[in-house]
Specification:
The complex is a heterodimer of chains A (106) and B (562). Chain A has 106 residues and is mostly helical. Chain A has one domain. Chain A contains four helices and no strands. By secondary structure, chain B is an all-alpha fold. Chain B has a single domain, classed as Sodium/glucose cotransporter. In chain B, 73% of the residues lie in helices and 0% in strands. The chains are: A mainly alpha (106), B mainly alpha (562). At the A-B interface, α1, α2, α3 and α4 of A face α7, α8, α12, α13 and α15 of B.
Chain lengths: 106, 562
């Protein structure tokens, strides 16, 4: 029973800690922004394939290589870069904030 | 044309497929059923036996370490982010994605890239929205998360049902692909191949649990990445590390010439294109064997890292398969020893899946061909093991321990049920593999990815983000997504016309996700807010406390307690 009331007290302290709300709102908006960005990049790529075939087939600097290739590879790289950006901030800034919240709730 | 059809089918078989609006692909059917048996390949068999020996050694080591349920389901939470990233990449890089995507590039050039991109962009979404919350809330299965503050019985039955449908059909695809590939690469009978895969998979999973399954996956991922890198370097070396030289030569040789440098007829209908995109992107985030991997790491930090590494490895791998496909146009299609003389053109001996395999031979000779064949076999084995473990956990952890026994069971008996379930799934997979040998299995990708995107993913996301979600909403919404996606796939051309033989399809698109996923989200929400039962109120009241654990990880399962 004391375990339960202890958990409740900890949760209460976290809920009342402005840092918790700061963490949730910062991380949530960051995550949804990056998700929207990824979705937009991908949707752009799909729409180019559906409607911009000629554009994707345009020669890049006069050779055989077409614009489609750097764009396709760019979408792949953008996925890797966006995950990297998120992990860097989440494992640094957000986790530090999280650590403080848990420490202050004890 | 035959090559292109086979290439399409190959890509469809195990990884997923962009059948959208290509009548050629639609008509193709399961061409892997027509592969010719090759002469016995001893290099490949010896290398495969070495791989099996090493992995059985690991299984023995893992079996001695496995003591608790957390060991069995989640490798004791002792996998690092980097290791888990490799294991996730391993789950994703199946033999058919290696052979199939390179074959697709070989057959139609640029279009191969459309697949790769679609399968990759789901990963960032998993990271941003799901990974850390999943790790913080769950224990062994994603149903732990979905049912966290909801009624255990109905939610877990729904979650286990959709997980098992996905696992069983995914297994069928892998088994049929395995039988065909092994017949092709090793010269073994289809039946022998399917039984070998089934038997080894049962040994890994029942004795070694998640620890063995993860390490088998990691070893295989390294072998596959290493082998593919070697082939790609061989190709680039041949062209002085210039893509322009590679492309110029490929355009000169390929019968479609310049057309391989731009998108072809793969995507024409925008509805199918968008629905396909949604399916690939969000389907990944609802696959039970992928979600389960997030419980093998000790905390949210490592869960995030694992997605970063997985995305990096998978992206790198797709770029390699692309180079391999173009390499095969220039180095394999020009060499008469690889060409099927009777058919001519781009048609290769052994069928449409062979570009990467023959390219391996062209670059590294018989020994390297054997290595790549053994890696392809190992790949199938590792993927089916992960699937089986995910299915077995749905049976033992969700259905048995939390629904049937209502939590009143011991860890030991839960793990025992899981092991029995693994054996059962192994036997089922072999039997279905035999039954489906000559069937058209092209629907499998559309089916499994649509269920994952339309049933599992919405319920999981709503349970994490919506404070209004109640049991009634989750269950009704989930089943609408599940029944809707299964129904639409059955009524679509690939099953209704190609498997059942009806004249015209009833559902006009290949992928239903554009309709079924929003339907599931919407009904989850509507049936939740209309739910005024006392239970619903209690469930809403429990959200703030769930949110604290979900966001901070406080109270999360410390699977790495030892």
């Amino acid at each position: 029973m004391s375990q339960v009331s202890n958990t409740q007290a900890v949760h209460e302290r976290i809920r009342n800690n402005p840092k918790f709300h700061e963490l949730v709102s910062k991380r949530t908006s960051f995550a949804w922004t990056l998700s929207a960005l990824m979705l937009a990049i991908y949707a752009g790529f799909i729409l180019l394939i559906a409607y911009g075939k000629d554009f994707l087939g345009t020669s890049l600097s006069g050779g055989t290589t077409t614009i489609g290739f750097p764009i396709g590879v760019g979408v792949i790289l953008s996925a890797i870069v966006l995950t990297g950006i998120y992990v860097r901030r989440a494992n640094g800034e957000f986790d530090e904030l999280n650590r403080q919240i848990i420490e202050e709730s004890r | 044309m035959k090559t292109l059809k086979s290439a399409f089918t190959a890509a469809l078989l195990a990884t997923g497929g962009l059948m959208a609006a290509t009548t050629a692909a639609m008509a193709a059917g399961a061409d892997m059923g027509n592969v010719e048996k090759q002469s016995t390949n001893w290099h490949a068999i010896v290398m495969f036996v070495i791989f099996v020996g090493i992995t059985l050694g690991i299984t023995y080591w893992a079996a001695r370490k496995n003591k608790t349920a957390a060991d069995f389901y989640a490798a004791g939470g002792g996998i690092t982010g980097f290791q888990n990233g490799l294991a996730i990449a391993g789950d994703y890089m199946s033999a058919a994605s290696f052979l199939g995507i390179s074959a697709l590039v070989y057959g139609s050039g640029f279009d191969g890239l459309i697949f790769s991109v679609g399968w990759l962009v789901g990963w960032p979404i998993i990271l941003f929205l799901i990974a850390e919350r999943l790790r913080n809330l769950g224990k062994f299965t994603f149903a732990d998360v979905a049912s966290y503050r909801l009624a255990q019985g109905p939610v877990r039955i729904f979650a286990a049902t959709s997980a098992l449908i996905v696992v069983i059909f995914y297994l069928i695809g892998q088994m049929v692909g395995a039988g065909q590939l092994i017949k092709l690469l090793f010269g073994l009978d289809y039946l022998v191949a399917v039984i070998v895969v089934g038997a080894l998979m049962m040994v890994y999973v029942t004795f070694g649990g998640m620890t063995a399954t993860t390490w088998v996956q990691i070893i295989k991922a390294c072998l596959l990445l290493g082998g593919a890198t070697f082939i790609a370097l061989g190709v680039m070396n041949h062209f002085g590390f210039s893509f322009e030289n590679l492309f110029t030569k490929a355009v000169e040789i390929h019968p479609k010439h310049g057309a391989i440098m731009a998108p072809g007829s793969l995507v024409t209908n925008p509805v199918d294109a968008i629905s396909l995109g949604l399916t690939l992107m969000f389907g990944t985030a609802g696959l039970p064997h992928i979600l389960m991997r997030f419980f093998t790491v000790p905390n949210a930090k490592e869960a995030r890292k694992s997605v970063f590494f997985a995305t990096g490895f998978i992206g790198y791998f797709y770029i390699l398969t692309f180079i391999i496909g173009f390499g095969a146009i220039t180095l394999v299609a020009t060499d008469p020893q690889y060409i099927d003389a009777a058919k001519g053109g781009l048609n290769l001996k052994g069928g449409g899946n062979m570009p990467a395999i023959w390219l391996a031979h062209a670059i590294g000779g018989d020994l390297f061909l054997g290595f790549i064949s053994a890696v392809a076999f190992a790949t199938i084995l590792a993927v089916v093991s992960g699937l089986t473990l995910a299915g077995a956990s749905a049976i033992s952890h969700d259905l048995y321990a939390n629904v049937f026994a209502r939590g009143r069971t011991t860890e030991a008996s839960e793990v025992r049920v899981s092991k029995i379930a693994s054996l059962f799934l192994g036997v089922i997979a072999v039997i279905l593999g035999v039954i489906f040998e000559k069937q058209n299995v092209a629907f499998i990708v559309a089916l499994t990815f649509s269920i994952a995107a339309s049933a599992t993913f919405p319920v999981l996301v709503m349970s994490m983000f919506s404070k209004s979600l109640t049991t009634r909403g989750a269950v009704i919404g989930g089943y609408i997504g599940l029944i809707g996606s299964v129904g639409c796939v059955v009524l679509s051309k690939v099953v209704w016309v190609q498997s059942f033989g009806f004249k015209a399809e009833i559902f006009p698109y290949v992928y239903p996700t554009l309709f079924t996923m929003p339907a599931a989200f919407l009904s989850c929400w509507i049936f939740s807010i209309l739910d005024n039962s006392p239970r619903a109120q209690a469930e809403r009241d429990a959200y703030p406390s769930q949110a604290i654990r979900s966001e901070t990880g406080l109270g999360a399962e410390g699977a790495a307690s030892h």
